[in-house]
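haha ok so turns out i had the wrong file open the whole time. this is the CORRECT one, sorry everyone. sequence first:
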Amino acid sequence: MERPSLEFNLPDTHEDGKLYVVDSLNNLNKLNVCPAESQRSLDEEENTSGTGENIAGSNTRNQCLFFVIFILTLIVSLALVSFAIFLIFQTRNEVDQISSRLLSEKKNIEELKKLNNIILRHLNQSRIKE
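then structure:
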């Protein structure tokens, strides 16, 4: 597919006519190249006074807004990570406490088993004697 050329051989016209044709070609090029959203922003740029101060102020404002949002995101992320680390340490402490309780209960159960065996032996010996 060949792309149609945007260059035309213009007949000799007045200066106003040439400017009108060039402006029309520029608008046609914008419609073909730019999506609708960027076309609106281009139209807004054309409607400004042309000083460029609005654009510079807008860019500075956008950069400041970006950095504020970026810093807020970092702070929220840091808070979430800190909370996650806190929860990890709390969980570790709870698991350590439960493990120590289980070990002490295991020792108690072993002692109860020994006592049970001693009692059973004693009962068996007393039955034998009777």
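The chain has a mean pLDDT of 78.
again sry for the mixup
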